[in-house]
Design brief:
Belongs to the iron/ascorbate-dependent oxidoreductase family. By secondary structure, this protein is of the alpha+beta class. It is 26% helix and 20% strand. Helix 3 packs across helix 6 and helix 4 crosses helix 6.
Length: 362
């Protein structure tokens, strides 16, 4: 089982020198790894970060086939369900989405094969900057220094007229492209429904945020077993920078979302997408829909693989509350406009600090 990180940590030591390894996968394959290197120890910044909601929780479920139904009554009910999910949770599960199960399994398998490549081959795709079309690695460099996370990743920055992916392993690029196209289709339909749920024309979001040039960030993540899962972290609490994020995973749990001040461990249905609202949707909706805080925790038994796909507007778009949702007397703008590319490049991996910076205090 996944284990939440406590607020106090004992001293950690390890006979493995992290400077001599290039990935967490390599680190975990080192002989006699009984404890984590001290620079992987994670200190929570929120005193409530270890709180976990243990009781059974019903996660909102959106039936995509009803959301796209030609029967008005069915679609109207599905839009109401989406509206409620985005307000109450900022998170939901999408079923009956039409993406073949073989494609979902195929991208998990292809990503696993990428992580199994020799380290020297993966270094070809390391990248240097957050906007590079291909990057892979482990440790993240941030404005506050380096974060040693118990995670390896490969990221692709995807735009409609540009798709670049590692040419290894064989077939990875092809299945990643098909998967990204499927995700883009789902998100466009979700945003049509969001337009209507906000009382706007169904193409309002698409036109205002220039979705024909929208950006995707494809992130495949490998979380190997950790000998001390209570001391390290896969990803610390954070919100995503886009509009919606789609996530799939293998059958190993590890995703937790913050709901009503407590952490909830998510166990999705087979062949479903987990979807969370992200920062740009909160800004665009003028705070009606909340960008959800979530994290990845660890276990000491099994490797977890997840595929997160952040879907945003175009890089050139300046995102602000929709003008039709703002009036100076009753609903003033709650956020300052900001260019999406600038937002992505400044986004820290810790809570919602950048979203808080563009929020207007009233």
């Amino acid at each position: 089982m996944a284990t939440a990180a406590p607020t106090q940590f004992p001293q950690t030591t390890s006979n493995v020198q992290p400077s001599k390894v290039t990935s967490v996968k390599t680190l975990t394959e080192s002989a006699d790894l009984k404890t984590i290197p001290s620079n992987y120890a994670y200190t929570p910044t929120d005193p409530n970060e270890a709180d976990v909601l243990e009781e059974e929780v019903s996660i909102p479920i959106i039936d995509f086939s009803l959301l796209t139904s030609a029967i008005p009554e069915q679609r109207f009910k599905a839009i109401q369900d989406l509206d409620k999910a985005c307000q109450d949770w900022g998170f939901f599960m999408v079923v009956n989405h039409g993406v073949p199960e073989s494609l979902l399994k195929g991208i998990i398998n292809a990503s696993t094969e990428f992580f199994n490549l020799p380290e020297e081959e993966k270094k070809e795709f390391a990248g240097k900057n957050i906007s590079d079309p291909i990057r892979c690695g482990s440790t993240l460099s941030t404005s506050n220094g380096k974060k040693f996370l118990w995670r390896d990743f490969v990221k692709l920055v995807v735009q409609p007229d540009q798709f670049q992916a590692p040419h290894k392993p064989l077939g990875f690029s092809e299945v990643a492209l098909e998967y990204c196209n499927s995700g883009r289709r789902i998100v466009r339909e979700l945003l049509k429904a969001i337009s209507e749920s906000l009382g706007l024309d169904n193409d309002y979001v698409a036109k205002t945020l220039n979705l024909d040039s929208s950006v995707q960030v494809f992130s495949a993540n490998l979380y190997p077993p950790c000998p001390q899962p209570e001391l390290a972290v896969g990803l610390p609490p954070h919100s995503d920078h886009g509009l919606f994020t789609l996530l799939i995973q293998n059958d190993v749990p590890g995703l937790q979302v913050k709901h009503n001040g407590k952490w909830v461990t998510i166990n999705p249905f087979p062949n479903s997408f987990l979807v969370n609202a992200a920062d740009q949707l909160e800004i665009f909706s003028n705070g009606k829909y909340k960008s959800i805080i979530h994290r990845a925790i660890l276990n000491n038994k099994a490797t977890r693989v997840s595929i997160a796909m952040i879907n945003g507007p175009s890089f050139e778009t300046s995102v602000a509350p929709a003008s039709k949702l703002v009036d100076s007397e009753n609903h003033p703008a709650a956020y300052r406009p900001m260019n999406y590319k600038e937002y992505v490049e400044q986004q820290p991996l810790q809570w919602k600090s950048l979203l808080d910076q563009v929020r207007i205090e009233v």
